[in-house]
C-alpha cells in the first residue's frame, strides 16, 4: 500500500531568461507530516493560498541581492496563508489562520516564535477585510505602496503622480494612496479593462501602454510634467517618464518587471536626463521599513475599513500544480490586483 504524501515545488534549474515550464521547477512528493513529528512550540500548517510576486524571478538568479537566491533543490520561496492543523504551541490552536514564508508546499512545520525564517504570524481579519488581505493590501503589497509613495516619493497635495504597473497589486494601492493625499494621478496598465478599473478607483486618467497611440497619448496627458513617477516596470515606460519629468521630480524605483525575464536587462537610453533635470531616482526594498510595519498596517486597515481603499484579487485555482503557470502568466499581466494561487479550498472556514 502506498504511503500518504504531500506535495511541494522545488527549484530544479536556474532559468537564463523566462521560466521554462516543466524545467525550472519540479513537483515533488514528500512523506506526510503528522502531529507526532512536531517538537515543542511547533505547529503544522496546511497551505491555503500562495502569494505570487514578480520578485520571484529574481530569487532564481544566482546573484547578490536583498535576499539569497533560492537554492537548487530547495522549495520555491513564497509567502502564504494557511490553517493550523496540529499544534504543540500554547500560542496557536487548530483552525487558526496564519501567514508564513512557507514556500510552495502543501504542508509545513513552523516554529511558533516565528524565528525559524518562516515568520509564522496569526491572522487577524480587520473590519471590512478578509484573510487574503494579509497578502495584499495589508501585506507586503500595501506596505510597498505606502512606504514607496509616502517616504521615498514624498508625495504631497497637488503633485502630478504617474504610476506604471498601475492595475497590479502594488500599483493599484499607489494610485489610491496618491489620491488620498490629494495628488493628480495618471495610471498606466496593459489592457482596456485595467484602464477602466483604474478610473473606477479614482485615477484622474489612465492609459493602456499596448495601444498604438500610447506614446503620443502619454505625451499629451503629461503636458504639465511629472512630479512623482512610481515605477513598477522599468524599460520603455521609464524612459518615457524621464522625458516628461519636471526638474527635481522624484522617481520611486520600486520594480522593473519588464526586465526581469530578459537575459540582457537594459536601462533607459535617456539616463543622462537624470542629471540635466536634477531627478532624484531612489530604489528601495520594503523590508527596510519593517520597524514601521505596524503603524502603516494600522493606517491601511483604517482606510480599508472606511472604504477608502478598494482592492481586487486574481485567484488561480488548481492547487500547487497551478503555481508555475500562474507565475509565468504574472509576467504576461494575467492579474488585476493581487495574484494568488489557491492551494486548497478552505471548506467550512471563515471569509477567506
Ligand atoms: N521594492 C520593493 O520592496 C518591492 C516590493 C514588492 C513589489 N515590488 C515590485 O513592484 C512591482 C509590482 O509588483 P506586484 O507584486 O504589485 O505585481 P503586479 O503589479 O500585481 O503584477 C505585475 C504586473 O506587471 C505588469 N507587467 C508585466 N510585464 C510588463 C511589461 N513588460 N511592461 C509593463 N508592465 C508589465 C502586468 O500588468 P499589465 O497588464 O499592466 O502589463 C502584471 O499584472 C514589481 O516590479 C515588483 O518587483 C517591489
From TrEMBL:
GO molecular function: oxidoreductase activity, acting on the CH-CH group of donors, NAD or NADP as acceptor
Keywords, sorted A to Z: Oxidoreductase
Domain of life: Eukaryota
Name of the protein: Enoyl reductase (ER) domain-containing protein
InterPro entries: ADH-like_C, ADH_N_2, ER, GroES-like_sf, MDR_fam, NAD(P)-bd_dom_sf
Alphabetical list of CDD domains matching this protein: PGDH (cd05288)
Domain Enoyl reductase (ER): 22-341
Record bears the keyword Oxidoreductase: yes
